[in-house]
Amino acid sequence: MTHSVQAQLLQEAYRVQLSNGQHQWWVDEPESLGGGNTAPNPMEMLLSALGSCTAVTLKMYAEHKGWDVQDVQVDLSLVEADKTQPKQARLIVRQLHITGNLDEAQKARLFKVAESCPVHKLLVGEIQIQTILEDGFEGLKQAT
To answer: Which residues form the signal peptide (predicted)?
Structure first.
C-alpha cells in the first residue's frame, strides 16, 4: 500500500497545509520559533501518528479476540537528544491506558501488540528517504 501526502507552505510564517487528496490538516511552529502556534508542530504530528496507530491496532486486536476493551488512550512524549551529541538517540515514551475487563495475560499480550502497529514498525526499522527536486536531481539518504 502506498500512502501519499502533499505539504504546501502557506503565506503565514511556517504554517503548512497537508492533504492526502481527501482530507486536509495543518502543521505550524510555536510562536517562540516564529510560527503562529495555530496547529500541532511536526514532532507532535509524528507522535500523533504513532499514538493513533497504536490505539487502533490495540482496539482491532482486542475486537478480533473478543476481549472486553472499552477504551484505549495512548500518551506520548518525545525526549529530545542532547544537541551537543548529534548521534545520541531520541526517546519516545509511550504509555498505554487500556480500560476493560482484562486478565494479566491479556494485558501482557496487548503490551506486545502495541509494538506491532505499522507506524511503530516504521519508526524502529531502517528508513530510507529519497529526495527529488523537480528538475530531476535526486539524492538518497539513509537514516542512521
So the answer is: none
Cell of 91: 526517546
Tally Cβ neighbours within 10 Å of residue 53.
Answer: 20
Phi/psi at 106 (5° precision): -65, -40
Residue 142 CA, chain-centre distance (Å), reads 19
pTM confidence score: 0.86
Query: 3-class DSSP state for residue 91?
Result: strand
Domain regions of the chain by residue span: 1-39, 41-142
Q: Could you tell me the end-to-end alpha-carbon distance of the chain, in angstroms, rounded to an integer?
A: 25
> Which among 81, 79, 111, 109 is positioned nearest to 96, based on CA atoms?
111
**Looking at this protein, which amino acid is placed at residue 67?**
W
Provide the 10 A C-beta neighbour count for residue 74: 22
pLDDT tens string 89-109: 789 999 999 999 999 999 999
The vertex-84 CA angle with 82 and 87, nearest 5°, equals 70
Sign of CA dihedral 46, 27, 24, 18: negative
